[in-house]
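Dear support,

I submitted the protein below through the web form. The confirmation email said the job was done, but the results page showed an empty box. After a refresh the structure appeared. I'm attaching both so you can tell me whether what I see now is the final result or a partial one.
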Amino acid sequence: MISSRARTSQQAVEKGTHEDHLTETRARFLLFERGYELVERVQHIHASCDGQEWYSCLLANLPLLTPEQFQHRFKKALSFRISSS
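What the results page shows now:
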């Protein structure tokens, strides 16, 4: 029989620990470290710098992401450019 502690530990490994996932405050800090500001627009998270914005994720999905996943999404968003013609 598996003890309650072992079962809880196993579930944490399978789901990822709470500390591995983002809060809005942590996401704001990660962007700030790179010179960007976190902006919330209609339940979406954007990074802003010098009047430009890049979409990162839905606010509701933020707790489902690890810091690494959030940073990967942010780096990918920076690679998209919109040009006016």
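Response: this is the final, complete result; the empty box was a page-load delay. The longest strand covers residues 52-58.
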